[in-house]
Amino acid sequence: MFAAYINAPETTLWILLQQEELVKYYGKELADVLVLLIDIWLDPTIVNSDYEEMCNKVDFIILLLDKFDTPLISKEKGLEIKEGLKRYYV
């Protein structure tokens, strides 16, 4: 249902996504979602994933941050995060 809302061309959210101005109008909400992604989605004690899936999630978060012009995690830091995740899977 929500996906249909987001993809409807007449919605404000769709327009903001197309104009890449989501951070400007929904900065707090984006920050909240990032906290959920990082604190829960990447927690190997909460989410049952293998190492490759976790690495893909790290790459996705980095790409998402770059897309919203908030490059908080560099590619190098992403590699460090992936190295740290190895202790849970190797």
Notes on the structure:
With 90 residues, this protein is an all-alpha fold. It has one domain. It is built from 5 helices and no strands. Helix 4 runs antiparallel to helix 5. It starts with a helix and ends with a helix.
Topology diagram in text:
Blueprint: H1 2-7, H2 12-19, H3 22-41, H4 51-67, H5 75-89
Helix pairs in contact: 4-5
Structural class: mainly alpha
Beta-strand level of the residues, as a percent range? under 5%
Tally the helices: 5
Termini separation comes to: 39 Å
| Largest sheet properties | none
Let me know the average pLDDT.
80
Outline of this structure?
The chain has 90 residues and is mainly α.
Task: Name some characteristics of this structure.
73% helix, mainly alpha, elongated
